[in-house]
């Protein structure tokens, strides 16, 4: 990546050319085909893309929770604090997953254990990983519940997940993720199941905690609207690949990839009522038969012959900016 010759600090997470495939009876689905992205300590990376673009599978590979079989990592490196996670044994990965990285899922109800109180589940995090006493773990659970904004935490520590609202359950899952003060949190569509006002509150909480704890945060979403205010950089994924990365405001102002431009144009804007939405025509490809050349070419308004045959590399298109489009310059100039 371009950095003007200045030495760059080692990123917290550096995913390089990651490939994951699912070997199923219906064929081999190439879910991730060369994903590269980095997250710096204390920074938020938003990973954006339509459903099925490989956002979650990439995250599962990073966390070491890939459903395998049928999923297999077939290439690339996942450097976390300088170490390639793919070379580590199961036990070591489990340790890292507990203490150094944590994940928040979309559906708190199925991620939490329905038959244990939230206090017990939060407390377990401390007891298992740090060997604190039951009483101490309980006190820490209450403290964490208070920190993530659960009203009357002391009175509710014995309640079960289903006794909380969707927004409050999501806060509990955030508390679980925070318990051991990890260096990296991956939040996979953390607010998708919530209504709009609660979405904003949960997003604000995540942003605030990320600052307070100086964690790296990966925020996975299919909704451009949610990430504008909280992300530092954005990686846009299409058909299992990162097709554009940029600092968030630059990406909004002038996208360097036609797919990103299509996504931006399909976001309804306030004050533009009645304006036609330019949703991207067509559908993402079947991952067992990804089109040759640029995978986006069947849907791309700019596609030319070369796009049908040559896979575009991820070009450096500016400081901290990349685009996997043969015609990135044209796209960028056209957007300015
Ligand atoms: N457990 C699985 N078994 C088989 N294929 C899977 C599995 N999980 C994911 N895939 C494949 O990987 C693709 C990408 O999935 P995913 O990363 O979940 O997309 P998203 O960008 O919506 O998070 C899916 O469309 C599917 O083809
Ligand atoms: S490489 Fe070609 S098909 Fe792909 S996004 Fe660029 S112009 Fe469109
Ligand atoms: Mg997903």
From TrEMBL:
Keyword terms, alphabetized: ATP-binding, Cell membrane, Membrane, Nucleotide-binding, Transport
Organism of derivation: Streptomyces yunnanensis
NCBIfam families (UniProt xref): oligo_HPY (TIGR01727)
UniProt xrefs under CDD domains: ABC_NikE_OppD_transporters (cd03257)
Name of the protein: ABC transporter ATP-binding protein
Any one GO MF annotation of this record: ATP binding
Subcellular location(s) per record: Cell membrane
Entries under SUPFAM superfamilies matching the protein: P-loop containing nucleoside triphosphate hydrolases
PANTHER family, A to Z: DIPEPTIDE TRANSPORT ATP-BINDING PROTEIN DPPD, OLIGOPEPTIDE TRANSPORT ATP-BINDING PROTEIN APPD
Gene3D superfamilies: P-loop containing nucleotide triphosphate hydrolases
Its membrane topology: Peripheral membrane protein
Protein family per UniProt: Belongs to the ABC transporter superfamily.
Main subcellular location of this protein, as a coarse class: membrane
Species lineage: Bacteria, Bacillati, Actinomycetota, Actinomycetes, Kitasatosporales
Record Pfam families: ABC_tran, oligo_HPY
Domain ABC transporter: 13-264
């Amino acid at each position: 990546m371009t950095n003007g010759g200045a030495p760059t600090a080692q990123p917290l997470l550096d995913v390089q050319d990651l490939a994951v495939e699912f070997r199923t009876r219906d064929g081999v689905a190439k879910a991730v085909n060369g994903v590269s992205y980095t997250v710096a300590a204390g920074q938020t990376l938003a990973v954006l893309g339509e459903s099925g673009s490989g956002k979650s599978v990439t995250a599962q590979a990073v966390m070491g929770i890939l459903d395998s079989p049928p999923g297999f990592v077939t290439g690339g490196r996942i450097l976390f604090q300088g170490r390639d996670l793919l070379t580590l044994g199961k036990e070591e990965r489990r340790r890292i997953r507990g203490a150094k990285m944590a994940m928040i899922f979309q559906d708190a109800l199925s991620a939490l254990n329905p038959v244990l109180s939230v206090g017990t589940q939060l407390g377990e995090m401390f007891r298992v990983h740090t060997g604190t006493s039951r009483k101490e773990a309980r006190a820490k659970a209450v403290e964490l519940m208070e920190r993530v904004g659960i009203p009357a935490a002391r009175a509710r520590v014995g309640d079960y997940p289903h006794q909380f609202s969707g927004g409050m359950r999501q806060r509990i899952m955030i508390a679980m993720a925070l318990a051991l003060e990890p260096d990296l949190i991956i939040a996979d569509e953390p607010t998708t199941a919530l209504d709009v006002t609660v979405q904003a509150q949960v997003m604000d909480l995540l942003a605030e905690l990320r600052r307070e704890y100086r964690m790296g945060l990966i925020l996975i979403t299919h909704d451009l609207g949610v990430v504008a205010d909280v992300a530092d950089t954005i990686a846009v994924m299409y058909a299992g690949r990162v097709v554009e990365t940029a600092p968030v405001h630059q990406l909004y102002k002038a996208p360097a990839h036609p797919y990103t431009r299509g996504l931006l144009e399909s976001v309804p804007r306030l004050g533009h009522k009645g304006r036609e939405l330019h949703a991207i025509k067509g559908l993402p490809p079947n991952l067992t038969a990804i089109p040759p050349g640029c995978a986006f070419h069947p849907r791309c308004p700019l596609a030319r012959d070369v796009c049908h045959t040559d896979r575009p590399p991820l070009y450096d298109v500016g400081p901290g900016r990349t685009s996997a489009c043969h015609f990135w310059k044209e796209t960028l100039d056209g957007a300015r």
